[in-house]
Amino acid sequence: MDNKISIVIRTYNEGKHIGQLLESIEKQSYRNYELIIVDSGSNDKTLEIIKKYNVNLVLIKKEEFNYSYASNVGVKNSTGDIVCFLSGHSIPVNNNYLETINTIFQNSTIGAMYGDEIALSDGSITEKVYNFLGYVKNKIKGFGKKMFLETKIHPGIFSCNNAAARRILLEKHPFKIELGKGGEDVEVAYRILQDGYFIAKVPKLLVRHSHGKKFRDFVQQLRDWKMMYQKVERFIDGD
């Protein structure tokens, strides 16, 4: 079965990498897809670059933006069976990226999936080492396996820098506006698991993604992610 894949990309001043991302999508072997870009007021060359491609561009105001709202707008404007989320600086490494997504969702017990990431060429040395070691660790851990079927949430699960889910589940469980500053993807993962689906971790689903953070800022980012995850746990417990 060839699922139609809706690729949702949130952008704000992504002129540095958005062209590379859209070029990588155009080179995909799997062609049954649509592109939805939700832009929140870019004032660099982002929109100029986007208009060169076959994209459904949806504009929201900068003051309206949070991760949840922008993602929900993307889902609302999608028509595919599967919604794939990429950030404006997440670049698929392989030309069979979308084909991998379609293949995984042939398994009807899988509600969502996500992949690994390595740093962009202009990422910091810290990011390159940390992400590469994580990728190698997952490859060794999953030697001979195409995916891991997960049943519990944890930090990083269903990270929407590189993830996909069945649209019907995203419509049932929209991203929570209350978690719009981060962690909203973990909460949706929890709802999908509660519905009895697996979430697949697929190391082969690989993108280049980083923020150029040097050691001190990167360590602080890791601390912030830990606090964000704890906030999501409290949100779920209080539901």
Protein topology:
Layout: E1 5-11, H1 18-26, E2 33-39, H2 46-50, E3 56-59, H3 67-76, E4 82-87, E5 91-92, H4 97-104, E6 110-118, H5 125-141, E7 148-150, E8 162-166, H6 167-172, H7 184-194, E9 198-208, H8 215-237
Parallel strand pairs: 1-2, 1-4, 2-3, 6-9
Antiparallel strand pairs: 4-8, 5-9, 6-8, 7-9
Helix pairs in contact: 7-8
Structure notes:
With 239 residues, the protein is α/β, with parallel strands linked by helices. The protein has 8 helices and 9 strands. α7 (184-194) packs across α8 (215-237). It is globular and about 45 Å long. The chain starts with a strand and ends with a helix. The model has no long low-confidence stretch (mean pLDDT 91).
**Poorly predicted ranges (pLDDT <50, ≥5 residues)?**
none
Order of helices and strands: EHEHEHEEHEHEEHHEH
Average the pLDDT over all residues and give the rounded result: 91
Question: How many β strands by DSSP?
Answer: 9
How much helical structure, as a percent, in the residues? 25-40%
Derived from helix and strand composition plus strand pairing, the structural class reads alpha/beta
What is the overall shape?
A: globular
Strand share of the residues?
A: 15-25%
Distance between the termini: 37 Å
Largest sheet: 9 strands, mixed
Helix segment tally: 8
Radius of gyration: 17 Å
